[in-house]
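Q: what sequence does this backbone want?
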């Protein structure tokens, strides 16, 4: 599949519920890191990470 293809056409192939959008801000051209899952903050706090 080329990069021009649509993700929905390969939906049946997707078996991993974690993707780029879980850690990267796709609205930004640099794909900067971001936290999108609340449980990650909980886990990081438990490990004393900011």
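A:
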């Amino acid at each position: 599949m080329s990069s021009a293809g649509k993700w929905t056409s390969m939906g049946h192939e997707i078996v991993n519920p974690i993707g780029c959008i879980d850690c990267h801000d796709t609205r930004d051209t640099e794909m900067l890191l971001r936290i999108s899952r609340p449980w990650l903050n909980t886990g990081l706090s438990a490990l004393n990470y900011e």
